Protein: Protein-arginine kinase
Organism: Metabacillus malikii
Amino acid sequence: MSLQRFISNAISAWMKDGPDSDIVLSSRIRLARNIDQYKFPTISSNEESQTVLNLFESAYASREFNNIGKLELIKMSEMQPIQKRVLVEKHLISPNLTENAPYGGCLISENEEVSIMINEEDHVRIQCLFPGFQLKEALEVANQLDDWIEQDVDYAFDEQRGYLTSCPTNVGTGLRASVMMHLPALVLTQKINRIIPAINQLGLVVRGIYGEGSEAIGNLFQISNQITLGKSEKDIIEDLVSVVQQLITQERNTREELYEVSKTQLEDRVYRSFGTLAYSRIIESNETAKCLSDVRLGIDLGIITDISRNILNELMILTQPGFLQQYYGGPLRPEERDIRRAALIRERLELEMRRNKPMEDDEA
């Protein structure tokens, strides 16, 4: 498989440009639901879990939903560990589904903006993942899918408490809304250290790129709601949108201030990171994330003009351990991954440079 073909297969729609994508990489809506007549996955028997999986396979696999396209069922029991890791790295499934759900599965849309996890912590977890800042649009699609599924099953629901879930923190709306944000200027100026506690006081939480328990690498942060009970979906979304809009403004203003006050130092940082990506023979994942963040900032500020931001979105995923091992055809030791990662980055950047070169020649 050529690199170009691999990229076209590996990149999901959410990795492309969207509204405010200089700051917001993606918007995600997740709805947690359980089927009324079955025990929740955390206490269900293998037979019950298999019954739920069979139900969704017969009812929804290969069916089309509106303009989303066909939904294909992927069973965890039929996947290799590397394949599961790739889906986690693309944010299509959770690590919990791969580790704790032998009878789990996932219905994924053709464009990969929709994934419906089955037998994770709850029977059903509907996820809509859109590029840029599109929380309201993602919620609209998630609610449509929710209604579609509820035509065939009865959800576990209480008139006072709302939707019943395995974890008490999801009871109520069952809604978890989040945005993935790139906040390098707020990190460089250490303003982020004051902002995170303030966000937490508003009933929101700041996590790493893979959600709960993950670290924030490459200056990427997930901002999401903590409260699902006692607030409507509309209120949850409006509160999160308000905070994200403020963060967008603060990050943009801080970038401008940094560039005005420390232009030479910032340009040096950006070009050093670009040089590391373009010429390294060995590079670890954390260093890759740091360099990609710097170069992305350089693109957004106009310091680098001949590299697309989308290329960095691709590399952010392509350089993860699962993708590397899938691309190179099998398990790799950590030191081998570091060598292969550097080679893949060089090849991808060289391909981008070759694409841009004819345009430069024509203009000359």
Remarks:
- Residues 257 and 263 are 9 Å apart (CA to CA).
- The radius of gyration is 21 Å.
- Residues 1-8, 359-364 have pLDDT under 50 and may be disordered.
- DSSP finds 13 helices and eleven strands in the chain.
